[in-house]
Design a protein that fits this description.
The complex is a heterodimer of chains A (about 190) and B (about 220).
Chain A: H1 12-22, H2 31-36, H3 67-77, H4 94-108, H5 113-126, H6 138-185
Helix pairs in contact in A: 3-4, 4-5
Chain B: H1 2-10, H2 23-28, E1 33-36, E2 48-52, E3 55-58, H3 60-79, E4 84-88, H4 94-104, E5 107-109, H5 121-124, E6 134-139, H6 149-156, E7 161-165, E8 176-179, H7 185-215
Parallel strand pairs in B: 4-5, 4-6, 6-7, 7-8
Antiparallel strand pairs in B: 1-3, 2-3
Helix pairs in contact in B: 3-7, 4-7
The chains are: A mainly alpha (about 190), B alpha/beta (about 220).
Protein name (chain B): Small ribosomal subunit protein uS2m
InterPro entries (chain B): Ribosomal_uS2, Ribosomal_uS2_bac/mit/plastid, Ribosomal_uS2_CS, Ribosomal_uS2_flav_dom_sf
Subcellular location (chain B): Mitochondrion
């Protein structure tokens, strides 16, 4: 039983064809099928060497025209009010609705380009979707101030916590000798 | 007997595998989703459509062509009563692959691959073993993200292979690669369904042809 185990030379088909031509092997099952329906690329071994020097990214990035609107939406409003529900394949997120409204208003052409963004926000408010701006809010500023006061109070709080732990340790030391005495007393009556 | 075997080869799509899947089915099963840009294998670049926010998207037109060729090849092998071996080293889908193989009446190996299973078969299993005539990889990497040893061993033993190659896999040695996602459950279920339907269809056609021949 002859065979050719050199997987780095030629393809499976070329090696089998050559062995058949010599006559040391009998025709395998798959040979005629491969000959009738060859693959798009012959499965020859290629050495997986890494690229040297400056690596050119051959694959184009995928961007759409609507991505500009989406980027602006996410920068101003953060992630939308509703989480994405990926179980439905025809789900439309808040951002997608915003983009579609934007394109509609743009096609109508009655509003100027600078005001289009605010107009779409108002249109969505009218249809019931509330968008909250992120970052530059009064509520956000108050949170910032609370955080500052909390930071200044922190060392005082830590001191009180340390004192409490030290008190507890002293109490613990007083209790353990009492427990030891009670343990010594117990075996005596038994 | 010769007519029985040579007649299917004259038709371009004797088993009509094209009707089993469509582009929309592949898209809904999330077959086009690849790994991130950093995981990309150099030889998968011709099969990738583009990169959306650093995630590779596989070109589904090419996947359709490759899938049609691969399913056609499996159908012909099953028609000629060849032994088919399913291999997948993903623990998540090990049960699915084994049950698919059982339903087809073929074989599966989803556990640790010992070194000499194909190359040292006569010592491990005894003399007179019949090796598989086709090996189908539903995931061509093993648990440490390296190419599965069986790809190299099948090329050594001159066994043709069909395999689902993701964007981090090496498609060189696989005879009929299918560029596609091998991590999503929906994609794996789709592949298992397609392979099961082709093999069962081919076997039924073989039975029918034999019955027709006997009647003559």
């Amino acid at each position: 039983m002859a065979g050719n185990r050199m997987q780095k030379i030629g393809s499976v088909f070329s090696r089998t064809r050559n062995l058949l031509r010599i006559g040391v092997i009998e025709k395998p099952l798959w040979f005629d099928v491969y000959a009738a329906f060859p693959p798009l690329r012959e499965p020859v071994y290629r050495v997986p060497r890494p690229r040297y020097g400056k690596v050119k990214d051959v694959i184009p990035p995928i961007f759409y025209q609507e991505d500009e609107v989406r980027a602006r939406f996410y920068r101003i409003y953060g992630s939308g009010p509703r989480p994405f529900d990926l179980s439905q394949s025809n789900y439309k997120s808040t951002c997608q609705r915003f983009v579609e409204k934007f394109n509609e208003l743009k096609e109508e052409g009655k509003i100027e380009e600078e005001k289009l963004f605010e107009e779409t926000g108002k249109a969505l408010l009218a249809s019931g979707i509330i968008l909250q701006r992120r970052g530059t809010d009064k509520a956000a500023q108050q949170d910032h101030q609370d955080a500052e006061t909390r930071d200044s109070l922190l060392p005082l709080q830590l001191q009180t916590v340390l004192e409490k732990i030290q008190e507890k340790k002293k109490d613990g030391e007083e209790q353990t000798p009492e427990l030891a005495e009670t343990q010594k007393e117990d075996p005596l009556p038994s | 007997d010769d007519k029985l075997l040579s007649e299917p080869l004259s038709h371009p799509d004797f088993f009509n595998v094209k009707e089993l899947f469509s582009l929309k089915d592949l898209f809904d099963a999330r077959v086009h989703l690849g790994h991130k840009k950093g995981c990309r294998h150099r030889f998968m670049e011709p099969y990738i459509f583009g990169c959306r926010l650093d995630q590779d998207i596989i070109d589904l037109d090419q996947t359709m062509q490759h899938l049609q060729l691969a399913l056609n090849f499996t159908a012909h092998i099953a028609y000629r009563k060849g032994i088919i071996l399913f291999i997948s080293r993903k623990r998540q889908f090990c049960h699915l692959v084994e049950s698919t193989a059982r339903e087809c009446g073929e074989y599966a190996h989803t556990r640790y691959w010992q070194g000499g299973l194909l190359t040292n078969a006569h010592v491990q299993f005894g003399s007179g073993v019949r090796l598989p005539d086709l090996i189908i990889f539903l995931s061509s990497l093993n648990n440490v993200f390296e190419p599965h040893v069986a790809i190299r061993d099948a090329a050594k033993m001159n066994i043709p292979t069909v395999g689902v190659v993701d964007t981090n896999c090496n498609p060189c040695l696989i005879t009929y690669p299918i560029p596609g996602n091998d991590d999503s459950p929906t994609a794996m279920e789709l592949y298992c369904k397609l392979f099961r339907m082709t093999i069962i269809r081919a076997k039924d056609k073989r039975q029918q042809s034999e019955v027709f021949n006997e009647l003559r």
